[in-house]
Design goal:
Keywords: Membrane, Transmembrane, Transmembrane helix. Residues 166-223 form the NrtR DNA-binding winged helix domain. Pfam families: WHD_NrtR (PF21906). The protein has 234 residues and is of the alpha+beta class. It has two domains: 5-157, Nucleoside Triphosphate Pyrophosphohydrolase (Alpha-Beta Complex); 161-223, Winged helix-like DNA-binding domain superfamily/Winged helix DNA-binding domain (Arc Repressor Mutant, subunit A). The protein is 30% helix and 27% strand. β1 (23-34) and β2 form a beta hairpin.
Length: 234
């Protein structure tokens, strides 16, 4: 029996998932620090499957556009956040990730500082969930494992890069810098040793400005390089 190409085109146009080809999607794990807690940006799944559960901002990848363009489009449409630091994380390809069809997720993780997040985010579209409380909410699909994978990557990058700059305001005190590390890593860091190491690495520069902290004035710093720098911090 001859293949009816017109029928195939018709079915494919009606439902792109008719063919046995994995569908490519892009999901984004967005971390920020809010109220001294590491938080993740999630959205509510509006329909079945997993209706009502929290999921990562994501969508099917549009053909004809780069991954960068798809990332920017999804980030803006789903959260209204723009201009974040991002890294490609991993591709999740298990065939049972979604009960409808085989979806391969190209996952990214992104960092945004609190001030930019509060300025840009559309809270009618998103929910901010503390990382340590992810087990207390219902998360759809395999998105909890994607978030956990992203957290491990972030912890790892903190050890040998200046990635923390992307979750901090441009100007910060040494106390704020140390606090960011402690919040993300989940444990205390010796203040004296941390400051000694940070200063010795020459990755910061003084801004010449001061900020009042309780009854004292603290120096404000910023990172010397705009780009991510590889350096052993921890």
């Amino acid at each position: 029996m001859a293949i009816n190409h017109d029928e195939i085109k018709k079915k494919f146009s009606e439902n792109i998932f008719w063919l046995s080809i994995p569908v490519l999607a892009l999901d984004i794990v967005i971390f920020t620090i809010f109220n001294d807690k590491l938080c993740v940006v999630l959205t509510t799944r509006p329909k079945e499957p997993e209706k009502g559960k929290l999921i990562l901002p994501g969508w099917v990848i549009k053909s004809g556009f780069s991954l960068e363009e798809n990332f920017d489009d999804i980030l803006l449409r789903k959260t209204w956040i723009d201009g974040v630091y991002k890294e490609q994380l991993y591709s999740f390809w298990e065939s049972d990730r979604d009960p409808r069809w085989h979806i391969v997720s190209i996952a990214y993780y992104a960092l945004v500082d609190k001030d930019q997040f509060l300025k840009d985010a559309d809270f009618t579209k998103i929910q901010l969930v503390e990382y340590d409380k992810l087990g207390e909410v219902e998360i759809g699909f395999d998105h909890k494992s994607i978030i956990e994978y992203a957290k491990k990557r972030l912890n790892w990058k903190l050890e040998y890069t200046t990635i923390a700059k992307n979750i901090l305001p441009q100007k910060f005190t040494l106390t704020q810098l140390q606090k960011a590390y402690e919040i993300i890593l989940g444990h205390d860091i010796d203040k004296r040793n941390f400051r000694k190491k940070i200063i010795s690495l020459k990755i910061l520069k003084e801004t010449g400005e001061l900020e009042k902290v309780r009854s004292n004035m603290a120096k404000l710093y910023e990172f010397s390089d705009k780009e991510l720098k590889i350096v052993g911090i921890l």
